[in-house]
Amino acid sequence: MEVISNYTRTKVLMDALPYLQKYNDKIVVVKYGGNAMTNEALKEAVMSDIVLLGAVGIKVVLVHGGGPEINTMLDRVGIESKFVNGLRYTDADTMEVVQMVLAGKVNKQLVQNIQTHGGKALGLCGIDGEMIVAEKLDGESDLGYVGEIKRVSTRPIIDALNSGFVPVISTVATSEQGDTYNINADTAAARIASCLRAENLILMTDIAGLLEDKNDESTLIKQVNVSEVAYLKKKGIISGGMIPKIDCCVEAVRRGVKKTSIIDGRVPHSILIELLSSEGVGTQFI
Predict the structure, then answer these.
(1) Does residue 213 fall inside a structural domain?
(2) What is the DSSP letter of 2?
(3) Which end of the chain, N or C, is more open, meaning fewer C-beta atoms within 10 Å of its C-beta?
(4) Is the CB of residue 69 less than 8 Å from the CB of residue 49?
(5) 229-235 long-range CB contacts below 8 Å, 24 or more apart?
(6) Can you give the residue range of the structural domain that contains 233?
(7) Which pLDDT does position 37 carry in this prediction?
(8) Is the CA virtual torsion 53, 265, 71, 63 positive or negative?
(9) Is 8 within the bounds of a domain?
């Protein structure tokens, strides 16, 4: 085991000081999903990162997905998983499972994980306090109970933060008529971040970030101005599954979030690297 000197420890803390001061008492929204959510070692790193950030005065809001867990439960109860253009078709039976898994199993496991690491967490979903009010998504294809956000109430989130808790939010929403809708977690995180006027929105993914050549991680683009996004789409650099993620980043910045980042959740402690260093660990949108 490598022995770290006291000098090295001190230098690390001093290098991080400007970033700790920058984010002190500021809100950072983290969308948590992908490999970092299923790999136990990475999950431990994420939980400890969140607890550490809270301990130094940074207010973290955790928004999570849970696609693999939903698929597992659907298989267990004999409901076929259906996707339309990459998006989950959610009929009434599937919606029941989505709500049970996201707002129940996954949400409470994450709350427990944060508390096991010495933090304080409060599990919420979009239905609580009408935090996320949605209507049926009006798209090219019928996706069933997949919703589009109409408005976000930040009061439950702010109340939790002011009481010293990490809000852990599952993206199940309610409608004005009392229907329940499934909301894409990236979309929900972007809207929540903008309504909170967050300092930073971080989307954890299973890739290094936006790549100039999608087959070569050494071509990582470190920073993108939102005005460049249309050009990068035209060139084909932004394509496929990256389009909706980057659209969420652009929307968040245009709605008032200072900076958004797509980071590699496969890298241990990637959240700390992104927030507490100059180079970061993914692609920043400003």
Answers:
(1) yes
(2) P
(3) N
(4) no
(5) 229/285
(6) 25-284
(7) 82
(8) positive
(9) no
Tell me the backbone φ, ψ of residue 38, rounded to 5 degrees. Answer: -105, -25
- Reported as a single tens digit per residue, the pLDDT across 63-97 is 998 888 898 999 999 998 888 766 788 999 999 99
Is the Cα dihedral 43, 97, 95, 107 positive or negative? Answer: negative
Q: How far apart are CA 220 and CA 212, in angstroms?
A: 6
Whether residue 235 is contained in a domain is answered as yes
CB contact set of 165 (below 8 Å; sequence gap of 6+): 120, 121, 122
The CATH number that applies at residue 255 is 3.40.1160.10
Q: How far apart are CA 56 and CA 270, in angstroms?
A: 17
Report the number of distinct structural domains present in the chain. 1
Q: Are the C-beta atoms of 189 and 203 separated by less than 8 Å? A: yes
Return the structure tokens found at 166: 């990490």
CA torsion sign, 130 to 23 to 194 to 250?
A: negative
Q: Are 266 and 42 in contact (CB under 8 A)?
A: yes
For the chain, give the number of residues: 286
| Domain contains 216 | yes
Q: Is residue 59 very low, low, confident or very high in pLDDT (cuts 50, 70, 90)?
A: very high
Report DSSP letters for 211-234, one per residue: BSSTT-GGGB--EE-GGGHHHHHH
What is the pLDDT, as a whole number, of residue 4?
63
